[in-house]
């Protein structure tokens, strides 16, 4: 009997010591070590890839897209469609995403794709104005018309064939922070006109914020919209 109690007590003691040691190692030392290494070597990424404006205030993350819309005339009307604020470079569409009350420029409650096929709503294999309302084809046609109308400025006409795919379709998550250089290019004249800037100034801004392929061969060239608009804000205030 005494041996049984002694063995049980010894096992409980060993278990408690193991629990204490593992708690200190896995719950204290390891998290502190990982956090310290991340802060020392990857400070920007460890803190959420924050983007700051000229005053040092955090305006968002370079990893998550934002919308640049005009304030709603009736904020309490959920059916009122948001209208883009055309003085800013516009991101990719993010149809169907939710919003939050903390920062209305983010759409983080829901993310994801429509999962519709590329020919959803196509008539005779083509996406045209006769596409059924609510289908992907109808959305793409409407988005293309809006891109052409919004970005046509004095002395500059957007051609339908110049509208890139990312201007009329959302990404898989709907939160893509980047657009193609081609989409940024067709917005230059409109942004320059709306902000009273010279076109060459805005073209240089786009060029300065265009990132090439990763390691020279992975992915596609891209422009981070938040970084670009943050630089544009600084330029218009200077």
**Helix/strand structural class:** mainly alpha
Strand content: 5-15%
Largest sheet: 3 strands, antiparallel
User: What's the number of structural domains?
Assistant: 2
Spell out the helices and strands N to C: HHEEHEHHEEH
The dominant shape is elongated
Helix content, binned percent: 40-55%
Number of helices: 6
Low-confidence stretches: 96-103
User: If strands are numbered along the chain, what order do they take across the biggest sheet?
Assistant: 3-5-4
Average pLDDT level: 86
Measure the end-to-end span. 86 Å
- Give the beta-strand count: 5
What's the alpha carbon Rg, rounded to whole Å?
26 Å
Task: Provide a quick synopsis of the model.
By secondary structure, the protein is mostly helical. 41% of the residues lie in helices and 6% in strands.
């Amino acid at each position: 009997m005494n041996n049984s109690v002694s063995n049980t007590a010894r096992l409980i003691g060993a278990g408690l010591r193991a629990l204490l040691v593992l708690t200190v190692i896995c719950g204290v030392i390891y998290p502190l070590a990982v956090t310290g290494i991340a802060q020392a070597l990857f400070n920007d990424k460890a803190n959420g890839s924050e983007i700051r404006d000229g005053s040092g205030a955090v305006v968002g993350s370079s990893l998550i897209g934002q919308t640049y819309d005009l304030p709603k005339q009736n904020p309490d009307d959920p059916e009122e469609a948001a209208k883009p604020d055309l003085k800013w470079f516009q991101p990719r569409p993010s149809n169907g995403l939710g919003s939050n009350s903390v920062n209305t420029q983010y759409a983080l409650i829901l993310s994801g794709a429509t999962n519709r096929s590329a020919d959803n709503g196509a008539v005779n294999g083509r996406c045209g104005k006769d596409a059924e309302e609510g289908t992907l084809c109808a959305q793409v046609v409407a988005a293309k018309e809006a891109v052409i109308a919004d970005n046509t400025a004095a002395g500059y006409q957007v051609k339908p064939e110049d509208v890139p795919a990312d201007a009329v379709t959302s990404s898989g998550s709907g939160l893509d922070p980047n657009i193609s250089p081609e989409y940024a290019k067709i917005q230059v004249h409109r942004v320059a006109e709306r902000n009273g800037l010279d076109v060459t100034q805005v073209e240089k801004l786009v060029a300065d914020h265009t990132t090439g392929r990763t390691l020279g061969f992975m992915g596609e060239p891209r422009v981070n919209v938040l970084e670009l608009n943050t630089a544009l804000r600084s330029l218009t205030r200077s």
